[in-house]
Amino acid sequence: MKLWAGRFEQQTDKAADAFNSSLSFDKRLYEYDITGSIAHVTMLKKQNIIPAENADEAIQGLKDLLEDINSGKVLLEGNYEDIHMGVEEILTNRIGDSAKKIHTSRSRNDQVALDMKMYTKDVLISIASKLTNIILSLCDVAKDHTETIMPGYTHMQKAQPITFAHHVSAYIEMFKRDYSRIIDCLDRMNTMPLGAGALACSTFDIDRDYVTELLDFSSTTLNSLDSVSDRDYLIEAMSAFSMIMMHLSRFCEELIIWSTEEFGYVTMSDAFSTGSSMMPQKKNPDMAELIRGKTGRVYGSLVTLMVVMKGIPLAYNKDMQEDKECFFDAYDTTITCLDIFGKMVVTMTVNKDKMRYAAEKSFINATDMAEYLVKKGVSFRDAHFVIGALVKYCIDKGIYLNELTMEELKSYSEVFEDDVYDVLGVATSIMVKTVKGSPNPKIVGEYLESVKKEFSVL
What we know:
single chain, mainly alpha, Fumarase C, Chain B, domain 1, Fumarase C, Chain A, domain 2, Ribonucleotide Reductase Protein R1, domain 1, 3 domains, two-stranded antiparallel ribbon, two-stranded parallel ribbon, 19 helices, 6 strands, elongated
């Protein structure tokens, strides 16, 4: 018999029972559900709302049940409506009447809100830890390549020379922002909802702040309606997950392109590649492709919950049960992708010679050449036109800018002198840039050291 069956004459239809049950997925909350119940009963005892002997028996029973679930002695299976009813029914079968008192002054509405917040706190901490590892790993990768020259791109066209370390550092910045978003989300959602009841609290003189203290929340929620109907923190967390996945996907897209024979900038480790069942020569970057593909899956989870929540009136509605599967899947996908990406990126081989060759056999020194003319007194717009015309001339002749003779250069501008050849080298282009945020090896090296120092203590 259902614990809420007092006002019902008929049993729930079996199909409706199965449709309504959430145990298959919310059982992962069992530790939080039991821990929250222990705190709740501890508070009920303190406030003399239930007898001390009943509270003590219930607390010990909950601790024993948690131990038995953890050890596999008790399996969370059966015809339970959800994890909350499952825990209460199992406990009632074990200790009797004392278990029937633990739900005093609470509802499953505030109970599940508590469970999900406790779970989400741990989830965010685990994501933050993975991001820290990724950031430190990328720092280690980058520090070996502060002088590894490669083309920088816009529109997938070679643009200006940079270093591989500078390119990797751009992703470090993205993951730093991801980390700050996770911490910000954790700080904002760290409020304790238990005691809100179904929607309007209880007539009992409960001490919500005491439960907040027991469960290590930073504060207690201030509106009972919002306490049970709020899922903003899940949407915010999944938004942060989606941005993490976007950054992983962008990097993976580049690794996929760079590992092609046409580019050859990197070689992915065999440990994170697969072959073809038909073509013997193939080595495919499947892990990177899977991360790119799973990004859409996390986006889908975010949109799912936003659509669920968009039309729900206050307070709790059963629609909100749909928060769990999409959130669990978004977290599982994100944490797995972070783990695989972290291992994949530190095992790849960076082909320095291929990168440098691609940089040198191009016109990525054109901007430096234009700035050379500007420094000689030519307006930037006129310099831009002159160098553009020279590039066209070189393309027609099948040569590069550093191969032009002084006679050819002066035919486009008398301002050119022999010192122009000093600015045409790709290494020179990088070394002369000394402003904050540039690809200069010294600046990038100092940046990497500061990031390592910041994240090594987290």
